[in-house]
Specification:
262 residues; eight-stranded antiparallel beta barrel; single chain; mainly beta
């Protein structure tokens, strides 16, 4: 019978080898030197250390929420009819107050303004919705007008009915321009925008035996756009109208006469 020999490579070099300890091959491949962490060098984990916590949380929730739903027992997948179920589509209007921290000029504001927002997404769990949103807000003062826009991903938490707590993060722009020629010129910004909102859903004409429906939601919001040259902080109040599509009958806990009715 032919003998087969397996050659091994020890993790710890012989006692006479230079350096001692763990093999240099492994330390080069899996280096965890503190000097390489958090500097945004572009290699692996380092560039994410400085990312805003809101955006990191949203990115973690995207794959985690469907996994949590799949791990539920089959019996628990049936839900009683509720208002906030299925997909949602929302259109809103906001009133805003903005302030800007501008390099070489310091703090400028408050600038009042108005704007609008469009949101859409899906209820992933009974207490969690994930979606995307786009918003545009115009603010102004005597010498300048600024247009703010963003495109973001959002997570909406529903710890109790009808409260909704939303956080979001994404890409934003601020474009200031002069209202007359004598005003100094300002340079805008392009970068990250992060925010939060708290709202209260009212369903004025919902049938409690049905899933989904129209909601009217007043809310307060806060938004932060960091930038070394043109940072922006905004906040205000708003109101939105949301349509929840609801769940199909085969996904709901219903009496027999309701479950099998056309």
């Amino acid at each position: 019978m032919e003998r087969v020999t397996f050659e091994t490579f020890p993790l710890v070099p012989p006692s006479g080898a230079e350096g001692g300890g763990i093999s240099p091959l492994l330390t080069d491949r899996f280096s965890c030197s503190p000097s390489r962490i958090g500097k945004g060098t572009g290699d692996g984990f380092g560039r994410w250390i400085g990312a805003p916590p809101i955006l990191l949380l949203l990115l973690l929730l995207l794959p985690a929420a469907p996994a949590l739903a799949q791990n539920e027992e089959p019996e628990s997948l049936l839900e009683p009819p509720k208002a906030r179920q299925g997909y949602y589509f929302s259109l809103g209007a906001v009133g805003a107050i903005a302030g800007h921290d501008i390099v070489d000029r310091g703090w400028m504001g408050p600038w009042p303004g108005v704007g609008g927002e469009l949101r859409m997404g899906q209820a992933i769990l009974p207490w969690l919705d994930l979606g995307i949103s786009a918003a545009a807000v115009g603010t102004f003062e005597e010498r300048w007008t600024a247009m703010h826009g963003r495109l973001s991903i959002e997570a909406q938490f529903r710890p109790m009915e009808p409260l909704a707590i939303r956080i979001y993060g994404g890409f934003g722009v601020t474009d200031p321009y002069r209202r007359f020629q004598g005003a100094p010129k300002l340079t805008g910004r392009i970068g990250g925008t992060y925010g939060a909102a708290i709202g209260w859903d009212f369903f004025p004409s919902r049938d409690p035996k049905r899933s989904g429906g129209f909601a009217v939601t007043p809310f307060v919001w806060f938004e932060w756009s960091p930038d070394p040259n043109f940072a922006t902080v905004m906040g205000g109040v708003g109101i939105e109208i949301t349509w929840w599509t609801g769940l199909a009958k085969n996904e709901l806990v219903l009496p027999d006469d309701e479950a099998f009715s056309p």
